[in-house]
Specification:
Number of domains: 3
Distance between the termini: 14 Å
Radius of gyration: 25 Å
Number of strands: 17
Largest sheet: 9 strands, antiparallel
Shape: globular
Number of helices: 25
Strand content: 5-15%
Helix content: 25-40%
Structural class: alpha+beta
Length: 553
């Protein structure tokens, strides 16, 4: 999570790094075990570089790594404006690693780390606000250590120095009251152990916010509620006054974090989704029903793979967690799913936890367990699980299957709903959030297997010219999963003529490869020569939802 910014802690090559952004040139140099950054106005001579400031902390390791600079004002930090993207080994402006409108040029101000970020990226943080944008922050440990989830350990360590006590607890099968084990808590308290950070929450009142910023959270693992905050569900009746105050301050607060029906659309905030799931409402389901926070073997060489695999209880069987309760479905899986057992179409996750949340430059599984619904797609604008796999099929096809298999009444559908592939419409008509999810799904192997790959090329080339840098990045990564384009060069941080040239060159080169008359599904709106059916393409593009989307995990 958070580490001291020394060479061993960083994934990107910082030494001699040169980057430019928003009228400034940045230069990073190494001195011993430390890194320092200087900046000057863009284009100014080298002599214009200002004093060096040390990069003192780094956050992230699996997907993104960002860095925090000293400010010269005590322990107050400011973010280095560039992030290292682990998967591609490239650097990008931090703002362009979030789903943010193009007009946004920066995200974090001085002190944002101290007042907000450190509260979930360290253990036992104390913001210790001084005044203005100054802080004198302290933490017990950088990163997330044992006590973040198990509570204070001093008494536990002291009392268990006695081996007789340990043996007595073990032989008696008793819980140790000196430490918290989330697996032994009731469902809500267990989930709250994770949800203290992994939730969208709000302060009960201003005094709680001031105390939280100054002295840290009062919550301790094992408690049944957050003492200073509440988990925010936009469509419930509780905390009406606080919700109204939030909307007065930021009218887009809910829409930037939730789908219209209240389902979470941003990653890292899974507790809100879990609480709304029917599994949780049964009283036994919690985060640890599916996730294991400790590696199977200490020092295991496979630790990175385990960590990147979301720490699942049964990583080799995606259905194991669900079938703990739904045993009757496991006995007749293919009859329930109408897909071959063992196929991705018979994965519980793919149908009931589809990739409808966003963060970390990719689509993320929803943690609100639900069932596929064309009606919800029409009403909420959220892609449904069936068409996130079968991107080449229209909504009408999905409605017919759900009616035949599960007896769900088909909703009223337009001509486009019946004729044009959902993936095409989402990519051309959808808002930036939907376009990001669709572009990612076009690079997802199960979706490529279900819907074919040949027709994806021109639409991913279209995504390379999206106004949102994140959508461009995702479209590029998905394009690189297709045959012949694994090393396709592209810089998603470019704009204007640079983008146009890259897109036209790539698309033109692909068109030359098409052996006409090629056979593309009629629903995809492609002509036999690989060109777009212009009337369909231009009409859908003209209908694009241009409303701004701002999703920050």
């Amino acid at each position: 999570m958070t580490q001291v910014g020394v060479p061993a802690a960083r994934r990107g090559e910082l030494a001699d790094l040169r980057l430019s952004r928003n009228g400034w040139d940045y230069a990073v140099a190494r001195q011993g075990r430390a890194f320092f950054v200087r900046r000057k106005p863009a284009g100014a001579p080298v002599s214009a570089y200002g004093d060096p400031r040390q990069l003192v902390l780094t956050t992230g390791s699996h997907h993104l790594q960002i860095f925090w600079e000293e400010t010269g004002t005590g322990r107050t930090l400011v973010q280095f404006p560039f992030a290292y993207i682990v998967a591609t080994g490239t650097w990008a402006p931090v703002i362009q690693t979030f789903l943010a409108p193009p007009e946004f040029k920066s995200l974090y101000d001085v002190g944002e780390w101290n007042g907000a970020c450190m509260q979930c990226h360290t253990t036992a943080p104390l913001g210790r606000f001084v005044g203005g944008d100054r802080f004198d922050s302290q933490v017990a440990e950088f990163g997330i250590s044992c006590e973040a989830c198990h509570g204070e350990g001093a008494e536990h360590i002291a009392r268990n120095r006695n081996p007789l006590r340990r043996f007595a607890l073990h032989l008696g099968g008793q819980a140790d009251p000196t430490i918290v084990n989330p697996a032994r808590l009731d469902a809500y308290a267990s989930t709250l152990t994770c949800g203290q950070c992994h939730s969208i929450s709000a302060f009960v009142d201003v005094s709680d916010k001031i105390a939280w910023t100054q002295f840290g959270r009062k919550y301790r693992p094992g408690q049944e509620e957050l003492p200073q905050k509440f988990v925010l569900q936009p469509n419930t009746a509780d905390h009406a006054a606080q919700k109204q105050a939030i909307l007065r301050n930021n009218p887009h607060y809910f829409s930037d974090r939730f789908w219209p029906d209240g389902m979470v659309r941003v990653t890292g905030r899974e507790m809100n989704a879990v609480l709304a799931s029917p599994c949780f409402k049964g009283g036994h389901f919690s985060c640890v029903s599916c996730h294991e926070m400790h590696a199977p073997t200490a020092g295991d060489a496979a630790l990175p793979t385990w960590a990147d695999g979301h720490q699942l209880v049964a990583p080799d069987d995606s259905n194991a967690a669900c079938l703990q309760c739904h045993r009757e479905i496991g006995a007749k899986l293919a009859a329930h799913t109408h897909h071959a057992a063992g196929s991705t179409g018979s994965s519980c996750y793919n149908c009931h936890m589809p990739h409808t949340a966003f963060g970390l430059l990719r689509a993320i599984r929803s943690h609100q367990v639900s069932s596929p619904s064309v009606q919800e797609t029409l009403q909420q604008g959220r892609p449904n699980a069936c068409n996130l796999c079968h991107l080449d099929k229209p909504l009408g096809w999905t409605a017919e299957k759900l009616a035949a298999w599960y007896g769900r009444p088909a909703p009223a559908l337009s001509d486009d709903d019946r004729r044009i592939a959902a993936g095409v419409r989402w990519l051309l008509q959808g808002n930036a959030g939907v376009r990001a999810l669709t572009s990612w799904s076009m690079g997802w192997q199960p979706a490529q297997q279900a819907s074919g790959r040949d027709w994806l090329y021109p639409y991913l080339f279209t995504g390379l010219n999206d106004p949102y840098a994140v959508v461009r990045f995702i479209a590029w990564r998905s394009l690189r999963t297709l045959p012949g384009y694994g090393d396709f060069p592209f810089d998603d941080t470019q704009e204007g003529a640079h983008l146009d040239a890259a897109v036209h060159a790539g698309y033109g080169e692909w068109r030359q490869r098409v052996v006409a008359p090629a056979t593309f599904p009629a629903s995809t709106g492609l002509a036999p020569d690989g060109g777009f059916e212009e009337d369909i393409f231009r009409r859908l593009l003209h209908q694009r939802d241009q409303s701004p989307v701002f999703i920050v995990e």
